[in-house]
Amino acid sequence: MTLNNVRIIVSGLVQGVSFRYFTYKTAINLGITGYARNLPTGQVEIIACGDKGMIDELVEAVRIGPSYSSVSDVQLEEIPMVETYSKFDIR
Asked: pTM above 0.85?
């Protein structure tokens, strides 16, 4: 399995609506490692490491988000694997 490492920035109403927990549950179910954290800009940053197909599924899920969220934009960029993650965390 080839691992991919991506940075996902999610904009919209994504803080204070359980977005990071939604991302956590989705990532765990897909076998993705990394983390999700709130940014001072009101966005959520997700670092995801895993199989490309699973990451694609995570991206599709965060485009929708949990019921109280409203996602306006999702930016995705591949990043070098600088750190190895053993699990997915909420920061």
From this structure: yes
